[in-house]
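Translate structure to sequence.
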């Protein structure tokens, strides 16, 4: 089986089964050996990624975080262009430690969190927290959380309106799944064995710390979040 066939199969199974996955993370990822990472492809590499075309990129936490940001924004730039719109890049992309994060419109950043701030049009993440997820369970955490936050940046630009916060959150999950699939289809990323489990586990168990100070209970159940992500992944962002 080629790696690229793995994700859709498992995501489809989740969609069909709607399995309860509250304890998925702890059950599946207590092993000390992290799974291999998502890799950039050496085929049709763009100049910006061609410095080491035959090498798998994103072999460190810092590389994966930067790639997740760069690739996701590149994806959305193309999507906006195709729709006759112009994507506005993030103003800032900030890693912080503990209490030292940037405030958002007067609201302090929380430790163990990641968020999009519409006031400054930036994404910030607790890098120690995200790194601990990465070390624990592989790079799936990075490739779920960063695209999710950038999904909120997309919503802001599209001026998407929601009556419930949970709708906003689930759409961001859907956008994350759709962007990731788009990048895999474009050969920017290749899924590897274990990636599907990482992605789904992070959706189920890492929860959505983003925006937690606004509506802490309205981010969707683990199953809802997995299904939203899978929906984007299988149908594309147009279905979100
Ligand atoms: Zn969110």
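Result:
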């Amino acid at each position: 089986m080629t790696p690229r066939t793995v994700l859709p199969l498992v995501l489809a199974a989740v969609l069909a089964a709607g399995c309860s996955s509250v304890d998925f993370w702890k059950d599946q990822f207590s092993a000390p050996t992290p799974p291999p990472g998502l890799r950039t492809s050496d085929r049709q590499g763009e100049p910006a990624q061609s410095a080491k075309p035959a090498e798998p990129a994103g072999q460190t936490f810092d590389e994966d975080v930067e790639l997740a940001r760069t690739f996701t924004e590149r994806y959305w730039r193309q999507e906006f262009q195709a729709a006759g719109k112009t994507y506005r890049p993030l103003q800032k992309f900030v890693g912080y430690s503990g209490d030292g994060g940037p405030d958002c419109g007067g609201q302090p950043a929380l430790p163990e969190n990641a968020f999009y701030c519409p006031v400054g049009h930036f994404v910030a993440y607790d890098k120690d927290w995200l790194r601990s997820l990465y070390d624990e369970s592989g790079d799936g955490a990075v490739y779920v959380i960063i695209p999710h936050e950038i999904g909120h940046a997309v919503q802001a630009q599209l001026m998407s309106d929601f009556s419930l916060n949970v709708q906003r959150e689930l759409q961001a999950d859907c956008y994350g799944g759709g962007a990731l699939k788009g990048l895999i289809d474009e050969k920017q990323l290749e899924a590897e064995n274990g990636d599907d489990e990482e992605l789904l586990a992070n959706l189920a168990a890492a929860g959505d710390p983003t925006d937690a100070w606004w509506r802490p209970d309205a981010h969707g159940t683990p199953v809802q979040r997995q299904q939203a992500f899978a929906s984007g992944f299988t149908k594309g962002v147009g279905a979100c």
